[in-house]
Write a structure and sequence with these properties.
Chain A is an alpha/beta fold. Helices cover 36% and strands 19% of the residues of chain A. In chain A, a hairpin with a 2-residue loop joins strand 30 (819-828) and strand 31 (831-838). Chain A has a seven-stranded antiparallel beta sheet with strand order 14-13-10-11-12-15-16, sandwiched between helices. A seven-stranded antiparallel beta sheet of chain A has the order 31-30-27-28-29-32-33. By secondary structure, chain B is α/β, with parallel strands linked by helices. In chain B, 21% of the residues lie in helices and 32% in strands. The chains are: A alpha/beta, B alpha/beta. At the A-B interface, helix 9 and helix 16 of A face helix 3, strand 15 and strand 16 of B. The structure holds adenosine-5'-diphosphate (2 copies) and magnesium ion (MG) (2 copies). One magnesium ion binds next to loops of chain A.
């Protein structure tokens, strides 16, 4: 069955901003789909609100709409583009839900748009828990016993029949939202209420708990000829009860006999057939009772997913790419297996290695959040590692995390309770450290397995690692023989950990290894366990005999990726790495990517000429360089992780391309950088360093409060705070950081009420190209990653812009920047202050490129290999016009997406510590509309009517009157607590006063919870978890009500609302904006 | 830890650690890419006189149980893995793999670069090899490897077969009536796997298992509804007696052959067989059934194959959507129905003028996917129609 010729235009929906449960795996899958569909000759119309994605690069679609993923805006695009078909299975739950709502409203039909990939009925059978239960029953597939409930009473009745504990799961929700294990009637009341509220149809499934069972996943593909294959099996190391997204998982399954595995395979094929996914991939989850092998189906996702991205990377079988082909009519046996080039895609990959995935969390950024792992996903990213054995993969995965304490011995201190087995009963981020400690303390494998519900096979594997470490403990490096070193490496011990065990340095261990000839070799991920020759150089390291690295044909450049997604270092850096790979390949280099994040486009074997799926750590990167002998290494695009390896690489004799390691150090060292700026005559907020409270107090006294305090060398504003007086300073130093001579605390004067500015530029050493100057909406003090910003700037004068650009050039020259440079400024009292300079790619690079059409990252990559900006301009890669960003005829707004919904009880006030997981872009011809679009894209659409609750700090009272008056004039009902209400009333605004939380019920928080408030404006006063503001903000976060916490944010919201109330405008594609077609 | 060495006939050597029994063993070295099912592999008689390399690195994870063996004993002559599980974990596990192998006196080696070994076999072909804990000198061991008989020309079916006939019910396999009836099936044991008997039984087959050399006349005299020709080890070209038996049976009784049984049918109807470079062994082989146009994922274990060119047909699967090529044979026409999509090997045929069909792969799986289990139903249909 060949390609469908009845289709011309296909619409692809992306998944929007990176949020917990839905990360850049959907950029990976969407990019793949766009690539193949375009290659098939279809016209592609793409909608995705996330500017940091590769898929929204204009070359991947014919028309790219960076628009909110709401039914209204997608419909507006449909109206304009008239696609023949909509492919909804690549945009995560967001894409799927959107397609369902467009289909159900009849919109698709009325525009003649067909769903391809999965039809509405199939989606319903999988996503609607009730239909799913019916479908499984009809197919004879076993499920946990269960019943449905629409109220707490009904839930209690079902639970009464099943017996506690029970699992509660709402329909049509992703990432375990609204789910929970209820152990008692009290639990059930809370969890069922939450679940009913979360479910769009107010229904929950109350199910027999199978907590503690083994959890498995199978990735299945099916074509329209009913050929079906299982691409990969995955076993969760963590038992049922820990969301798969938060579980350590392993591919392939390790502890199933063939009989059990084949039964599961049969069940998964029966499941995809029963649900009726005719073309494409699905993910099916199972639980197995470790006592007797009873197997039940947990759920089925009729679309590509985080797990399918992992499975693709784990096997080399590109699920999304093939799903896209299947959706347009091909059969599995008509598609070639890219990796071998000779066999085809209708087969099941055989692995001859082990893949381990480990999630990464960010609990430290959300004080007050519940740190236990449960049925709701909480991790923000993940790493994958490949090894020939579990132990090798395990060791690599742990060091890929870049997490202190993730691997005993090598990663610094950790505290473990006395009752370690008791502690294992509650899964937390640190549970694997507990497992190792328990084993070290002599608890047998059985006991540790019983306490943690982790299968004894895995516990025994970890025990083998622990034993290998114990054999080295306390000895001296020179006394360790070659065989012992080799054994330690085969057990997966990192050089860093070996060093810690032997009291040596990592460098010494590396030298000893080399001297002894203990080096990794590289094997190929080939989909077929060696049965056929592989054409695709997709490698992983192992301590074995024979290496498979192909001889190089061209000069090579190694590009270092950014490791796991985390708050502060996410997809934006991967974006830059991918661009470098594309640009350098085009420029005639063989590109070599090193990264360990399975969600990304950079780890698609298609992206670079060679892919090393390895930790971005010194040990592993240096080994890759030894194998590849590159011309140079790109460290400046992957964020802080690779930047931190620059010095090591240089010491090993490898060429760091672009800005030199010493310049990097100069920019990162606050003291040296401050001195440099002073020499350059630039303004830097007065600052000092302190290693004790006394010193800190002295510095603060000297420069004056308020001050910004932080540990040195941080990214994403980690542990950064604004401190208004000595008491707070004392508290900060006491709790936040172990300040000491090695870890000084930086103290800067806080520039209050300043406008923050970001600049992204590229320098070739002679010329500096300013990509854009971005004006932040929120004032300085809100981390640049969390604040909204706009291109072109709206309230900055030409003189000020000129000064900002001048300073950027001066800094670029002083740091001898080659490549990208990001500078942050604050504008206060008509003076431009420099906050920091980062000689690397920044979070805003993709946003700038989407807003202006200038491929900054590609440009930087070419500069890194020695080309000049002038030649790139000649070539037409960049525009002739110098300050293009200033003269755009459209306005682009970037807004951040924050995960507060996942962490109930965490205060939502924005501050200098970054907490957003992702971003969206709104683009239109006016600031107001762009702001409104950006807000809608974050999921917190601005209301066009209704009630606004206002409660602001004293300092903001005067300024708030004007915007609130405007809202009132627009017909909004204004609610306010005492003080604010009085003020507004005096200004002639009709206000309804409501009680403060401390004043009893019904109070402001009650009204928010009851859905009587459509927007909250609350600027914080006073800190701490028990204030009125805290209750109001957390209630808004829980209820999903837009909540503005800054004054500029309030102004922007009002502008946005005004724009919404005027006539809307037709959506335009990036291609049109970039061609400057807009009036 | 005891040292062990693996040496191939071309002199390639790997040093590793002994597990299972100490000692020395010889055989043809082949690799299997299945990620599960080592117990079924070990007990599959088709692996007789072979040293099997598992490409999946962790083997033994779920231990060994009493239900999964495919025959009475371990059949491989040696076993090679990257890492044998120190601890088995499964609710069905009765002992560890290591215990099982040492208990059965099977010599095995672990801790070697099995991927490098696999790539070597892929490029150089299957060849003779030895594992030893006694003679750790690759040169002297290699010399003795080269004195061993080759697989080409080896008749092994006789040596793994049952000595005397028995009923499947004797080993606890009860037929499940199909449309209210059961069929009497004569199963020729050239290395039969228990799961074939189980699947025969599941579609109504009441099987009597006969020794490899049972003459056709004896079987025909039994008045069976059908004859099942089993899988088995060795070179079909060296198993003349089996070819003779098959020739005499065809046309007189419905026949279903798998693996060696397929090769024997192929030869019996006038075709030729040849040795594949390194064979197909694993659980993920895509086979096109050109009758249905569908692809099934199948379990394979064969080092020989039937040559379509010997029937004058092209040695490649028909284009998608095209019907199976039909050829003339000594028993009338045959449709070449099943094709391996990886390398174009002929994987099955159906006789059009006499009742009978056969496949090169393992529809009984064990280990492997169940996609092709319907063929046992098809055999029951054939028997039903023919009686
Ligand atoms: N019946 C159950 N008993 C115990 N835990 C369960 C049960 N059902 C699901 N879970 C746990 O909850 C997690 C999320 O459930 P799932 O149905 O997979 O939702 P999601 O759509 O969020 O992936 C699972 O990964 C599993 O660990
Ligand atoms: N001196 C200061 N005055 C006002 N705000 C500041 C000052 N220093 C930092 N900030 C705020 O803190 C945020 C984070 O600081 P920054 O130095 O950019 O750290 P990071 O390296 O984490 O990006 C900035 O985006 C800015 O909003
Ligand atoms: Mg799930
Ligand atoms: Mg910053």
């Amino acid at each position: 069955m060949p390609r469908r010729d009845d289709l011309q235009t296909i619409m692809v929906i992306g998944s929007g901003p990176i949020i917990i449960g839905q990360a850049c795996e959907f950029d990976y899958s969407g990019t793949q789909a766009c690539k193949v569909l375009k290659a098939e000759g279809y016209r592609i119309v793409l909608v995705n609100s996330n500017p940091a994605t590769i898929m929204t690069d204009p070359e991947f679609a014919d028309r790219t709409y960076v628009e909110p993923l709401t039914p209204e805006s997608v419909l507006a695009v449909i109206e304009r583009e008239r696609p023949d078909a909509l492919l909804p299975t690549l945009g995560g739950q967001t894409g799927l839900n959107l397609a369902v709502s467009l289909a159900e409203s009849g919109a698709l039909e009325s525009y003649g748009v067909g769903l391809i990939g999965a039809d509405l009925e199939a989606i319903r059978r999988a996503e609607d828990r009730r239909r799913f239960v019916e479908t499984m029953n009809q197919a004879g597939l076993p499920l946990p016993r269960s019943g449905f409930a629409h109220s707490i009473e009904e839930a209690a009745a079902v639970a009464g029949e099943l017996g506690f504990p029970v699992m509660v799961r709402p329909s049509f929700v992703l990432g375990g939202g609204g789910t929970g294990l209820a152990r008692s009637p009290q639990d059930l009341e809370r969890i069922a209420a939450d679940g009913i509220a979360t479910s769009p149809i107010g229904e929950v499934l109350v199910e027999e708990s199978v907590e503690g069972w083994k959890e498995f996943e199978l990735e299945v593909m099916r074509d329209r000829a009913d050929n079906a294959v299982v691409v990969c099996s995955v076993e969760n190391v963590d038992p049922m009860g820990v969301h798969t997204g938060d579980s350590i998982t392993v591919a392939p399954a390790q502890t199933l006999t063939d009989r059990e595995y084949q039964d599961m395979r049969d069940a998964s094929l029966a499941c995809i057939r029963a649900v009726g996914v005719e073309t494409g991939g699905s993910n099916i989850q199972f639980a197995v009772n470790p006592e007797d092998g009873r197997m039940v189906v947990i759920e089925m996702n009729p679309r590509v997913s985080r797990s399918s991205a992992l499975a693709s990377k784990a096997t080399g079988f590109p699920i999304a790419k093939i799903a896209a082909r299947l959706a347009v009519g091909y059969r599995l046996d008509e598609i070639t297996n890219d990796i071998t080039g000779e066999t085809q895609a209708c087969f099941e990959p055989a692995l001859d290695y082990v893949v381990v995935k480990v999630p990464r969390w960010a609990f430290e950024k959300f004080p007050g959040a519940d740190p236990t792992l449960g049925t709701k996903m909480k991790s923000v990213g993940e790493v994958m590692a490949v090894g020939r054995t579990f132990k090798e993969a395990w060791g690599k995965a742990l060091r890929s995390l870049e997490r202190a304490g993730a691997s005993l011995g090598g990663d610094g201190p950790h505290d473990v309770p006395d009752d370690v087995l008791g502690a294992l009963a509650t899964p937390t981020e640190g549970r694997m450290t507990l497992v190792e400690t328990a084993l070290q303390r002599g608890h047998p494998v059985e006991d540790v397995a019983a306490a943690s519900k982790i299968d004894p096979w895995f516990v025994d594997q970890i025990a083998q690692v622990t034993e290998a470490a114990a054999r080295l403990q306390g000895r001296r490096l020179p006394k360790v023989g070659t065989d012992e070193l080799a054994a330690a490496k085969r057990a997966g011990l990192a050089d860093r950990r070996i060093a810690a065990l032997l009291g040596a340095t990592e460098r010494e261990v590396r030298a000893a290894r080399r001297a002894a000839g203990v080096r990794p070799v590289y094997k190929t991920v080939d989909t077929c366990a060696g049965e056929f020759r592989a054409r695709t150089p997709y490698y992983y390291s192992t301590y074995e005999q024979v290496s498979e690295v192909a001889p190089a044909e061209k000069p090579r450049v190694v590009i270092l990726g950014s490791g796991p997604n985390r708050i502060g270092q996410g997809i934006e850096f991967d974006y830059a790495c991918v661009h470098a790979a594309f640009a350098l390949r085009e420029a005639g280099f063989e590109t070599v990517m090193v990264n360990c994040n399975p969600e990304t486009v950079s780890t698609d074997y298609d992206t670079s000429d060679r892919l090393y799926f390895e930790p971005v750590a010194a040990e592993d990167v240096i080994a890759v360089c030894e194998a590849e002998e590159p011309e140079g290494v790109v460290v400046q695009l992957g964020g802080q992780t690779p930047l931190g390896l620059a010095a090591d690489l240089e010491a090993e004799g490898y060429q760091v391309l672009g800005t030199s390691p010493s310049s990097i150090d100069l920019a990162e060292d606050r003291g040296k950088f401050g001195a440099l700026l002073t020499r350059l005559g630039a303004l830097l907020p007065p600052h000092g360093e302190a290693t004790s409270l006394e010193e800190a107090t002295a510095v603060a006294e000297r420069i004056g409060y308020p001050v910004v305090v932080r540990p040195s060398y941080v990214l994403g504003g980690r542990a950064m705070e604004i401190v208004y007086g000595e008491d707070e300073l004392e508290r900060y130093l006491a709790q936040a950081t172990a300040a000491g001579p090695q870890h000084p605390v930086l103290v800067d004067r806080f520039l209050e009420g300043a406008i923050e500015i970001d600049v992204d530029a590229v320098s070739d050493g002679d010329e500096v190209f300013i990509g854009a100057v971005m004006e932040h909406i929120e004032e300085a003090g809100v981390h640049s990653g969390d604040s909204s910003c706009v291109i072109p700037p709206v309230s900055i004068s030409d003189d000020e812009l000129a000064e900002v650009e001048r300073l950027t050039r001066v800094i670029a020259a002083a740091l001898e920047v080659k490549g990208l440079l990001n500078v942050q400024f604050a504008l206060k009292d008509e003076r431009v202050w420099v906050l920091e300079a980062n000689p690397r790619a920044s979070r805003t690079v993709p946003f700038v490129s989407k807003a202006t059409g200038v491929p900054l990252a590609k440009m930087a990559a070419r500069v890194l290999v020695g080309e000049s900006i002038a030649t790139l301009r000649e070539e037409g890669l960049i525009p002739q016009e110098p300050a293009l960003y200033r003269n755009l005829r459209h306005v682009a707004v970037k807004a951040a997406v924050l995960p507060f919904g996942r962490f109930p009880g965490v205060d939502t006030v924005l501050g200098p510590e970054m907490r957003s997981t992702g971003e969206v872009m709104g683009v239109a011809t006016s600031l107001g509309l762009s702001l409104a679009k950006a807000a809608a894209a974050t999921g917190a659409a601005l209301p066009e009517k209704g009630s606004v609750f206002v409660s602001v700090a004293n300092r903001d009272k005067r300024a708030i009157v004007f915007p609130v008056k405007r809202l009132s004039d627009l017909g909004f009902r204004i609610l306010a607590t005492g003080g604010t209400a009085g003020l507004l009333r005096r200004a002639g605004i009709d206000v309804q006063e409501v009680a403060k939380v401390s004043e009893g019920h019904p109070n402001a928080a009650d009204l928010i919870r009851e859905g009587q408030v459509d927007m909250v404006i609350n600027t914080p006063f006073g800190r701490g978890p028990r204030t009125d503001g805290y209750f109001i903000r957390t209630a808004a976060a829980a209820a999903g009500v837009p909540c503005v916490t800054t004054l500029p944010g309030a102004f922007a919201a009002v502008q946005g609302i005004e724009a919404l109330r005027r006539d809307g405008e037709e959506p335009w594609s990036l291609q049109e904006y970039h061609r400057g077609l807009r009036p | 830890m005891t040292e062990a060495v693996l040496v191939l006939e071309d002199g390639t050597a790997f040093r590793g650690e002994s597990f299972g029994a100490p000692g020395e063993t010889f055989g043809e070295i082949v690799f299997n890419t299945g990620m599960t099912g080592y117990q079924e592999v070990l007990t599959d008689p088709s692996y007789a006189r072979q040293i099997v390399v598992m490409t999946y690195p962790h083997v033994g994870n779920y231990g060994v149980n009493g239900d999964d063996p495919e025959s009475k004993a371990i059949q491989v002559s040696g076993f090679v893995v990257r890492e044998a599980a120190r601890r088995a974990s499964s609710w069905r596990a009765e002992r560890s793999l290591d215990q099982e192998l040492s208990g059965s006196g099977v010599v095995a080696i672990e801790g070697i670069d099995t991927r490098a070994l696999t790539l070597h076999i892929r490029e150089a072909g299957a060849m003779r090899a030895a594992i030893s804990t006694d003679d750790l000198d690759p040169r002297s061991l290699g010399g003795r490897v080269r004195q061993q008989p080759e697989m080409l020309g080896a008749d092994l079916a006789g040596s793994v077969s049952t000595r005397r006939p028995y009923e499947a019910t004797d080993i606890g396999i009860q037929p499940v009536p199909r449309n209210g009836r059961t069929f009497r099936v004569a199963a020729l044991d050239w290395g039969i796997k228990r799961n074939s008997l189980r699947l025969l039984a599941r579609s109504g087959g009441h099987a009597t298992v006969f020794p490899a050399m049972t003459p056709a006349g004896e079987i025909l005299a039994g008045g069976y509804d059908g004859v099942f020709l089993s899988n088995g080890p060795g070179d079909p070209a060296a198993t003349e007696y089996a070819v003779r038996t098959a020739r005499e049976l065809l046309g007189k009784v419905p026949v279903f052959g798998i693996c060696l049984g397929h090769q024997i049918v192929g030869r019996a109807i006038g075709g030729a067989t040849y040795k594949l470079k390194f064979g197909h062994r694993g659980s993920n082989q895509p086979v096109l059934d050109s009758d249905s146009g569908r692809v099934e994922v199948t379990s394979h274990n064969h080092g020989f194959a039937v040559d379509p060119a010997s029937f004058g047909a092209a040695a490649a699967p028909p284009a998608p959507g095209r019907e199976a090529p039909v050829v003339d044979t000594e028993v009338g026409r045959a449709a070449l129905t099943h094709w391996n999509l990886n390398d174009g090997t002929l994987e099955g045929l159906r006789l059009l003028d006499v009742p009978g069909f056969c496949v090169q792969y393992h529809p009984e799986a064990a280990p492997g996917p169940h996609d092709a289990a319907y063929l046992f139903e098809r055999f029951a249909d054939l028997m039903e129609r023919s009686t």
